[in-house]
Amino acid sequence: MEKPLITIRETKPLVHHITNWVTIYDCANMTRAFGALPVMAHAREEAADMTGIASALVLNIGTLTSDLIGAMIISAKAANEKSIPVVLDAVGVGATKFRDDMAAKILDSVHVDVIKGNYSEIAKLAGEDAQTKGVEATSIEADPKRIAKEYADSRSCVVVMTGKEDIISDGKRGFIVKNGHDSMGSIVGTGCMAASVIGTFAAVNPDYCDAAKDALCYFGIAGELAAEKSGGPGTFKMHFYDEVAGLSDENAQSKLNVEEY
Amino acid sequence: MEKPLITIRETKPLVHHITNWVTIYDCANMTRAFGALPVMAHAREEAADMTGIASALVLNIGTLTSDLIGAMIISAKAANEKSIPVVLDAVGVGATKFRDDMAAKILDSVHVDVIKGNYSEIAKLAGEDAQTKGVEATSIEADPKRIAKEYADSRSCVVVMTGKEDIISDGKRGFIVKNGHDSMGSIVGTGCMAASVIGTFAAVNPDYCDAAKDALCYFGIAGELAAEKSGGPGTFKMHFYDEVAGLSDENAQSKLNVEEY
Amino acid sequence: MEKPLITIRETKPLVHHITNWVTIYDCANMTRAFGALPVMAHAREEAADMTGIASALVLNIGTLTSDLIGAMIISAKAANEKSIPVVLDAVGVGATKFRDDMAAKILDSVHVDVIKGNYSEIAKLAGEDAQTKGVEATSIEADPKRIAKEYADSRSCVVVMTGKEDIISDGKRGFIVKNGHDSMGSIVGTGCMAASVIGTFAAVNPDYCDAAKDALCYFGIAGELAAEKSGGPGTFKMHFYDEVAGLSDENAQSKLNVEEY
Prior knowledge:
The structure is a homotrimer.
Chain A: H1 4-11, E1 14-18, H2 24-34, E2 37-40, H3 44-52, E3 56-60, H4 66-82, E4 86-89, H5 97-109, E5 114-118, H6 119-125, E6 132-133, E7 136-137, H7 144-155, E8 158-162, E9 166-169, E10 174-177, H8 190-202, H9 208-228, H10 233-246, H11 249-253, E11 258-260
Parallel strand pairs in A: 1-2, 1-3, 3-4, 4-5, 5-8
Antiparallel strand pairs in A: 6-7, 8-9, 9-10, 10-11
Helix pairs in contact in A: 2-8, 2-10, 3-4, 4-5, 8-9, 9-10
């Protein structure tokens, strides 16, 4: 997409989240900083209705309960019917059996358009041998580029593996996003925010692979710019929001660092 | 009230919140920055007891569930018995039927002293034709000044409609608060924090209409001062807290921008 | 312990939290800033499994429900079996009977290694006459140093009473930590973060009394350094994270302000 930021800021898509209680504020605030409208709503009674007026749905199982997974499935069915993108952030898959089971339950019940996680979370989902240390990736033996492409192909969706380099594939095309900065890992919530940003870009771009690539490039570029001004995680986080809000398509396009594979 | 800030800082009223999971930290932190003591407690088993030691109750339905609404009603009944102010932030009314129904359930079960929302939320509550885009106001056809005054009169309470200009009425008097800055809309949670600030001022001022007016003027003035120093939503939010904590009654009184109607 | 920070940053212990919804982000982010890995997970179905891969468990009853207390007890039993430290932050004990009862339920069901609270919370737990104003300490008549030592002795655990001076005892030894700054009380969540930091230090130091002392000294020193650069609660919080992340064992050891009693 040529100018995703302008499109987001002009159309202000509503991005419905059912997410975790740790980073829920930052997921909302980052969505807002990019120019979209976040709404967080998890009651089963309104889950479908809220998705019904949204342009994208972001699910995050970071602090999942059975009840919350139920609401996610209701909303995802509504999103499937309406053909708006569903992004699943598979936080902590590979850490406990319950997370593995609940992620499987979502994936068996509805179509997820973008499955996102860190290297070990996605490797575990894809059936590889992998453990996650709480919500932190551990190193995996298999090649993430292969996993992303094969898993995306098998599920007819887009797969995003975030890490030092972000791997994105829809089963045919593959992208390696090299934008970003180590400081992004110094604060809690960057991964969750990335899922919100992917949802935001996918809300205005029906090519979800392209949307995920743009989202992670732009997000990473804002992180690079913020890191230049920062002296630690506190100042970094503050500048991160300023840089996202101040980003333009022109500025971002001149800083893209992405390869196809 | 002549010097509300000094009164708040000297008496340190306890402001009990049953609120949403997105902005719960900022509601607490803003209450603290103004000088009051926030407490967030939503278990039904302690809802009435916690309200029983508080000086104001703030309810916010941003991430409502049936269970949470139940706790809100228990607390509001305790507040009514104790004659301390109940502030309801009607977040997202007009977005889903569930929110409309749950807000109505609260309003039918207890006396709410200050009903607060954005233009479309309050218009919807007042029976006008209005939709809310998630938790974001959409433009309404009717005159908000008329809605606020008539709705306040019909419910014998104070009505607050927040937006570019904040409209406040108790059915007889009406105020238009013009303090504030666009930057306040650049971050998530300003509306929720405003309800906390109204609760804080109402905790020390039995004239709730006057308290709401002072609260929104002071809150807006701190926003104006913070905006002067900010380069985006990250720096704005940081300075906002500093300016609130550094505000004095003298400084605020010299910057009031409010009209009667 | 000679160099706790280096040990934390090299071993990156996983610190499992079941905590409150107000400060959950800051508990996680402060744990991360010290160099450990936080994970927040409260579903009963995974509580024991998540604790099973962790090096410490931090429980915080700030926004307790019966259900959440159940998950805490499941996790604490798993921690007891695995012999990893359990830290309980007794937020709001002394404010409502429900909090008193639920704290007692935890303490009757499992072994808690570090019981932490403000002066009135711990005094109440220890059977003294004390009230808590929401989650804010009120002054107590009894001597906190005596309470900490006797209560720790009676329960064979470490007791931490936080306030202007932090009191720590394992029943035999006692410490008075004088590091810290008034600015730490200007933001919501410092107390909760302190419990996370104690959990982080206890994860790498089997002498939990020593770990708690180091944790509160280091935490207080970062607060002192941040306060020097701050103009209010907003700037303070930002700098606080930078100073924690930038702290070294050498720098901290040179600024210790602690007495034995």
